[in-house]
Amino acid sequence: GATVVLEPLMAIEPVTDRQTAYRELMQAANADRLLATSTNAVDAAWQLMPGFAPTGRLYGVGSASAQALEAAAGRTVERPAGAFTSEGLLAMDTLTDVQGLDIAILSGEGGRNLLVDMLAERGARVRKTALYRRRWLTPRRERLAQLVRRADTVIVTSGEALTHLCDIVDT
């Protein structure tokens, strides 16, 4: 048996301006299409507005975000058949002809703008609502060194986290 040690590098927190997020979420409820980019976005939406009931077609970028959105909304959620990425979502037939549609994207602060840019280029009115933010955690260098010395394998779950880890180690 393996011994697993978890060392978080990031915390997920609500956005600072919750009033703006709430207003944008109210508008998102009436969008023709609503896209969730992560389970964190879905969780944050329903924490901010427990009665959130979007009326348009629902999409999840990946399987986990689609499942979370289905559970929260109580409705069927569309998702890419193959690649669980923004590119996979953009390749879906129901998101290629979006001229004149209102599209809401539930997301965190920052991140990629590919969905916003491509859907707007296709003629949609797109609003990205930031519902959470990432806060980088900085474990003590001694702690990280101890963990790495004892580890056979280190798993980092995102490119951003890997960059942050390298920055900690390099300082």
What is the CA-CA span between the terminal residues? 34 Å
Q: Shape from CA axes?
A: elongated
Mean pLDDT: 92
Alpha-beta classification: alpha/beta
For the biggest sheet, the summary is:
5 strands, mixed
Q: How many β-strand runs?
A: 5
Q: Tally the helices: what do you get?
A: 7
Uncertain segments are none
Using only C-alpha atoms, the radius of gyration works out to: 18 Å
In oligomeric terms, what are we looking at? single chain
Helix content: 25-40%
* Proportion of residues in extended strands: 15-25%
Give the helix/strand layout.
Layout: E1 10-14, H1 18-28, E2 33-36, H2 39-48, E3 57-60, H3 63-73, H4 86-90, E4 102-108, H5 114-121, E5 125-136, H6 141-150, H7 159-170
Task: List the main descriptive attributes of the protein structure presented here.
alpha/beta, elongated, single chain, five-stranded mixed β-sheet, 171 residues, 7 helices
Please describe what this structure looks like.
This protein has 171 residues and is an alpha/beta fold. Helices cover 39% and strands 19% of the residues. It is built from seven helices and five strands, in the order βαβαβααβαβαα. The protein has helices at 18-28, 39-48, 63-73, 86-90, 114-121, 141-150, 159-170, and strands at 10-14, 33-36, 57-60, 102-108, 125-136. A five-stranded mixed β-sheet has the order 1-5-4-2-3. Strand 4 (102-108), helix 5 and strand 5 form a beta-alpha-beta unit. Helix 2 runs parallel beside helix 3 (63-73). The longest helix has 12 residues, at 159-170. The radius of gyration is 18 Å and the shape is elongated. It starts with 9 loop residues before the first strand and ends with a helix. The relative contact order is 0.19. The model has no long low-confidence stretch (mean pLDDT 92).
